[in-house]
């Protein structure tokens, strides 16, 4: 709305036709909303249904231990861990895992992006390149064989293995991003990483042959203190990581105000893609999901806004301001 008002004001003040044309040719404002983990099947359904209504495509950073049934847990072994260990657990049953696999495939068919969040959700800050590569290879191997492992080989969709092989986005648990991560990503065929943090929205930059996106620090709360644009960080700030449902509406309003202000700043300014990260957990009784859904409902229908996946954003940014991100 403010952007349109600025254009009308420019016309009224008699600014040059060239200046107005330059305004009209500004790139779309991109909004990238992602989810880490991909566990709760109820939230898979909620996110997919909402996306259909709101004209948005999400990026799901999937943890592969969540498509392993608990009884098969020892099929996975993380770097320097005993077999069958995972910081986020496993599917309770094979039936649960099959339902999750179905959501993954349907989301892919609906235009959402499935990316990697490793398997066991361990902090890889001290890992070597070899450790990261082993974890990345485990992700592909477990996901490739997941239908068979969960007694559903006959239900495996045609093209599943090609889909798994084509996953080329990555976010590290705990946003741990040592140099070894990027070296391993390049070697394992990942095109972009979304594990870093930046001081406000910034265009992605090449790092060791991988395009690095950074979740932005954005002002939040009465004192406008910077915080990572992610639900977990808001949860820690608002209630010290302890559920406080009695203040859920208050926390939603704070999160929404922060998201909206950060989005508007880019929409009215440099049009740098705005990123928001969430998890498949309804922290503070769903305050942060609701805040995201409010923002998306308000902005994603605008003709100069694109609510897209990371892969779609990369394609759209190719050539913007002379940048070339296509060859990574």
Key features of this structure:
328 residues; TIM Barrel; five-stranded parallel sheet; 16% strand
The CATH class is identified as Alpha Beta
The strand count comes to: 10
Question: What distance lies between the first and last C-alpha atoms, to the nearest angstrom?
Answer: 36 Å
Number of domains: 1
Largest sheet: 5 strands, parallel
Determine the CATH superfamily: Glycoside hydrolase/deacetylase
Account of the 3D structure:
The chain has 328 residues and is α/β, with parallel strands linked by helices. The chain has a single domain (29-320), classed as TIM Barrel. The protein contains twelve helices and ten strands. The strands form two sheets. Strands 1, 2, 3, 9 and 10 form a five-stranded parallel beta sheet that branches. Strands 4, 5, 6, 7 and 8 form a five-stranded mixed beta sheet that branches. Helix 3 packs parallel to helix 4 (94-109), helix 5 crosses helix 8 (179-187) and helix 10 packs parallel to helix 11. The longest helix has 20 residues, at 248-267.
